[in-house]
């Protein structure tokens, strides 16, 4: 039976790959093609082994691959054959000129829009899947629909809310799917086409349609709110450390208020990942552009507190270890920005390790999935960092353990064995409050959590 629609994703990364795999899995009547300029990534997808670790992804990929899901480096052919084009490319922060370090660098986005116009050959719906500054759809329209253009492109915003580590569950059972379009006849038709795709597996009540600008802003605002909760609880954790209040007790008391709710109240060494900081800074830049300086300052503090949290973690380590870590071996347990991913983009472990290395510590990194990322992130310290698959080998001979990722398997390590193989006094700095601190203390460790009383001998 011929396919009813040809769907394309430009970009086969953490968003484009899983999103299209789940779409193909649920819409067998559609042909779903994913293109990328990264030939290694495409080869990995085509081998049936995803290019990165994501629970459940391999099974979904293997069900749909070469049935109605294909991967290719031929971007031009992909564009030509598609009815609907999801643009899922990366949107990094600008590193040069005006807005450096804050604004989104949209040069790749513009290049992609021009490529779509060049190869389209007929009318198409172009969907913004990436996270973008508000009003990007207007710039896109300027490029795609110039005066006198023969082909019409309808631009729809459909930001992605998946979280790495739970991407497949998030895509199969999303809290909501947001689809924003222009309030014109053709705009409404385009939105309906995207609604119809998602309606194959998503409850219609969870499909929300809005105007295009609301959709673009909602994605930035949602990430800002999530990151703000983390910075809020981290700031309270710091008060706990000063006052002998316990952050778990305080978080429970806060979260039982139905107006606040219990989710996202876990304190830590700080948030990471490719999105939170980038998206907030992008929103801050946008606020300043619109003259909303007080609003910009408010949201910028979320990022400031996050940097403070990472710095404070390292300062506590150094102070606790007699104000020097020179030549002390420190085992870093976990480098990924969160559990169940190998992604290290903007991981707090990067800043923590860098600061420890600058203080001339000997850093040994272990992580079940993220050692390749750690090697790349710490490449400038080549020769000063060790990478170990086995956490016991990493810990042997070390003065301290720093828990930087909430991998559940770290709970189940034999800490008696680890303690015996470490230098004394042995320290644990638990940047995720993952471990049982009392048990560790009873084994002989000096234990430092976040927002908790220190347990020292
Ligand atoms: N990673 C997440 O958890 C997440 C969640 C929601 C939204 N987002 C947003 O989605 C977007 C993509 O994020 P990601 O994590 O998938 O990024 P990524 O870096 O993993 O993937 C982007 C891919 O796009 C490809 N690409 C770039 N320019 C291209 C071009 N001109 N033609 C073809 N391919 C091109 C790159 O080679 C890369 O493989 C970003 O805007 C991000 O903010 C990410």
Key words describing this protein structure:
single chain, 457 residues, alpha/beta, Rossmann fold, 6-stranded parallel β-sheet, 14% strand, binds nicotinamide-adenine-dinucleotide
Written overview of the protein:
The chain has 457 residues and is α/β, with parallel strands linked by helices. The chain has two domains: 5-202, 3-Layer(aba) Sandwich (Rossmann fold), CATH 3.40.50; 211-457, NAD(P)-binding Rossmann-like Domain (Rossmann fold), CATH 3.40.50. The chain is built from 17 helices and 14 strands. The strands form three sheets. Strands 3-2-1-4-5-6 form a six-stranded parallel beta sheet, with helices on both faces. Strands 11-10-9-12-13-14 form a six-stranded parallel beta sheet, sandwiched between helices. Helix 9 (212-243) packs across helix 11 (276-289), helix 11 (276-289) packs antiparallel against helix 12 (293-320) and helix 12 packs across helix 13. The chain is globular and about 75 Å long. The protein starts with a strand and ends in a 9-residue tail after the last strand. The mean pLDDT is 97. Bound molecules: nicotinamide-adenine-dinucleotide. Nicotinamide-adenine-dinucleotide (NAD) binds next to helix 5.
């Amino acid at each position: 039976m011929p396919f009813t629609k040809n769907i394309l994703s430009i970009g086969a990364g953490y968003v484009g790959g899983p999103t299209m795999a789940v779409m193909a899995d649920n819409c067998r009547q559609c042909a779903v093609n994913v293109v990328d300029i990264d030939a290694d990534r495409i080869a990995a997808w085509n081998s049936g082994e995803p290019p990165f670790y994501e629970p459940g992804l391999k099974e979904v990929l293997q069900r749909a691959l070469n049935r109605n899901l294909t991967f290719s480096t031929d971007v031009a052919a992909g564009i030509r054959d598609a009815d609907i084009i999801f643009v899922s490319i990366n949107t990094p922060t600008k590193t040069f000129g005006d807005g450096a370090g804050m604004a989104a660098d949209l040069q790749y986005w513009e290049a992609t829009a021009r490529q779509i116009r060049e190869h389209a050959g007929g009318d198409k719906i172009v969907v913004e899947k990436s996270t973008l500054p508000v009003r990007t759809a207007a710039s896109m329209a300027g490029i795609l629909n110039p005066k006198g253009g023969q082909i019409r492109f309808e631009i729809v915003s459909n930001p992605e809310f998946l979280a790495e580590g739970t991407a497949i569950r998030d895509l199969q059972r999303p809290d909501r799917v947001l689809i924003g379009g222009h309030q014109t006849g053709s705009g409404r038709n385009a939105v309906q086409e995207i609604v119809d795709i998602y309606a194959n597996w998503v409850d219609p009540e969870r499909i929300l349609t809005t105007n295009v600008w609301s959709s673009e802003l909602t994605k930035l605002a949602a990430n800002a709110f999530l990151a703000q909760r983390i910075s809020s609880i981290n700031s309270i954790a710091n008060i706990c450390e000063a006052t002998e209040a316990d952050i778990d007790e305080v978080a429970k008391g806060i979260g039982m208020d139905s107006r606040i709710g219990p989710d996202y109240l876990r304190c830590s060494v700080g948030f990471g990942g490719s999105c939170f900081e980038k998206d907030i800074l992008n929103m801050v830049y946008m606020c300043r552009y619109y003259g909303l300086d007080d609003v910009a300052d408010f949201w910028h503090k979320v990022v400031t507190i996050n940097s403070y949290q990472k710095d404070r973690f390292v300062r506590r380590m150094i102070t606790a270890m007699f104000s020097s870590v020179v030549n002390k071996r420190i085992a870093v347990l976990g480098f990924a920005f969160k559990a169940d991913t190998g992604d290290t983009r903007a991981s707090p472990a990067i800043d923590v390790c860098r600061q420890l290395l600058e203080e001339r510590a000997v850093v040994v990194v272990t992580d079940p999935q993220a050692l390749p990322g750690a090697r790349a992130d710490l490449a400038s310290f080549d020769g000063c960092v060790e990478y170990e698959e086995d956490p016991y080998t990493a810990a042997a001979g070390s003065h301290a353990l720093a828990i930087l990722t909430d991998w559940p398997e770290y709970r189940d390590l034999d800490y008696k064995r680890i303690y015996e193989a470490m230098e004394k006094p042995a320290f644990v700095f638990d940047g995720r409050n993952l471990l049982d601190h009392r048990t560790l203390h009873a084994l002989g460790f000096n234990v430092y959590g976040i927002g908790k009383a220190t347990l020292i001998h």
